[in-house]
Fold this protein.
Amino acid sequence: MARLLVVDDEKGIRDALVQVFEYEGHEVSAAEDGQEGIELAEQLQPDVIFLDVKMPGLDGLDVLGRIREGDPTALVVMISGHGTIDTAVEATRKGAYDFLEKPLDTDRLLVTLARALELKGLTESMADLKNKVESRHEIVGGSYQIQKVLERVERVAPTEARVLITGENGTGKELVARALHRLSVRDQEQFVDVNCAAIPSELIESALFGHMKGSFTGAVADRAGKFEQADGGTLFLDEVGDMSLDAQAKVLRALETGVITRVGGSKPIEVDVRVIAATNKDLAREIEEGQFREDLFYRLNVVPIHVPPLRERREDIPMLIQHFTDLMATHEGVTPRRFDEGAVERMLELPWPGNVRELRNTVERLMILAGGDVVRAEDVEMLASGGGSQTGVGGELLAAETFSVFKDRAERAYILQRLRECDWNVAETARRIDMPRSNLYKKIEKYGLVRED
């Protein structure tokens, strides 16, 4: 058990971080401003401090300087919703151990903590943490179809061969990519994912290859792209079929030469990256229609892996329901509920066009909204038909003790659903629901929302 200190002026973020760390078994204290943070740091001598950059009164960077003056060995992780290269550099100069940008990803948060504690000598290894993180990305199923996928993953993962993963949306293509990385010789290095469909075509080259300051409007500083970030590790190009032809040409050149050039730059940069790609499109048809380069297809499709839709492996549904139930109760604080036999049978009959992702979302909604300790067939039926009542789906929402609790539950469910509809494109979600992007980020942090796989 480690002693941790969280310093942040936003109560929602403080509470969320305290909850995450306490669940991991640590002793956590919290401060709502810089001055209180300095005092608690001096009194408690915490092993790791998580410190917000932007706070009223004493700025986080000033607090960092004061803490390090009092204890030059203090391990301080800076967190910011307005992170810039300059801020990160200044934090590092003042002795920050790491710099995390909001919205905070729980897995990244726990990995950073484990590394800090390992440096402090409080943990022997990261094996336990890796198991916890990987449980979120586990491929679950006993069907013949999914076992064939796992067999191919195990055979190709230790090699350097490129892999093209195909399958419908929501089948778990990213899980396969993560399994390939986890079982490879690169597993101690970065796994960097890029959703090519979520990045505007005019920005995809900058995202992949980085850019130089002033190379285009908004390029206020030099920035490394995903290829550089993945150097030594694995780069996952999700929905590669949505990439522009210009970007495809540059990716092809990078695969052929192992060299990239930032947008607006002239200096060649060598990168050692294993590329795994995924798509829900028929790339053969895209090639015929001139939308995808044939030479890039053959570069990516060294080893193909097809992930079957859920309707072709229905026998896995009971196992998946149990997996998601355990996962949400253990890691996300959702009230544990048992799915009775009738509920499982009804879920076996549903079409699941959104595949495993839709099943996961449905399990979560039923666990949150169904009345009682057991999810029954009528709860599933009401959800499937879009209905709801005080005794069925929506029961827990309507039974909230106070209006404040009801409002928070309803707001969380609404925002989560809109984020899913926009494939977690925060800017697009904010535009659709007419909310400032900064406010949406705060809501994501407040409710601890994390993108599902």
User: Anything to note?
Assistant: Residues 122-133, 387-395 have pLDDT under 50 and may be disordered. Residues 403-421 form the longest helix (19 residues).
